[in-house]
């Protein structure tokens, strides 16, 4: 997955998370790489691209610093590095959009979408609306329909004003803070959520999108500021954000949609920069996982070679551990395109929550599993359709990932893989892999039989 970044993203002297965290995230990707991620430098945006979205007096003010009030209308002020930062970060959004569109894949930029910026000036710490610049560039490149999916904590009123009446660009906006609130238009719809219903509202927003298969590009403003401590209300935690990213990329995979993501909000209000970086890495991790999942799905029919068979020796219900950290990697489920409705394409509930962090390397030594126990696990799952169960013995990370993918796609295969011999014809399963105390496991969920869903 191509990720765009330049040190010029942080060229401004303003010490603010929006202008600083890109470099910290880029450093983390070198120190702790995410598989499949390639960081490349963007081409700076052109003046004409800025003028396609913002007024000439405002663009001139941003570049030259005069008049001072207009140049600093973003709320952060103006300095000599602002123009360089704006051109670089906006170019990153545009390059991610065009790369995703042209290669029908997922790409991203470590810059922010800056969704409060308007035609005539900046607002809410936003200078240039990179989301609209990227959307218009995609339209020029041939996209007929571009969706801006804005999950920043605040409303994207600047974007809504800029795309009002613009053909081929629309916005779905889920917010937990009413700042920059706007009335729905033909191009933009706003969903306000609270901590008690955040994921349900995100799900409802995704389900509300008309004819998603007709979308040529999704521009995803992946704010982490809905999370408590990073700008959001109490009750929305890191697990909630993990589940949200799983929802978004599962939905995009189901409809085979190219996605260009950007960072958006997320602040060190009561968390450290290291913790903030970890939150934003959740987006990158899930996006990269979605790319790998799509590649595995594309290769599934051509290459049916089994990986080393491993399985669990016991089962239990997934429970929240009290003494360890746990990361659930929502491995972009439902990447198969079949007879399910759009509503069913949004994943079901996940295992119970715990304390979550991002890890990278599994322990070297793994316990050898016994295959006879798979039939027991399958039977337990069938007894409680829709409920998640966890295999108790750790697997290698690669096997856990492959096993989850194989199980989700088993109903499409004419030949059943050796480790799935306990499955019955016509069954549909969901699966995900996760990390508990540095060890990797899988969770299973029986969804029913195809003939029952028909």
From TrEMBL:
Q: Where do the TM regions start and end?
A: none
The Gene Ontology terms for molecular function here are: histone deacetylase activity
Tell me the segments the record calls region Disordered. 312-371
Q: Which GO terms describe its biological process?
A: epigenetic regulation of gene expression
Query: Entry's SUPFAM superfamilies?
Result: Arginase/deacetylase (SSF52768)
Task: Tell me the Pfam families matching this sequence.
Answer: Hist_deacetyl
Q: Which residues form the Histone deacetylase domain?
A: 25-271
Q: What is this protein called?
A: Unannotated protein
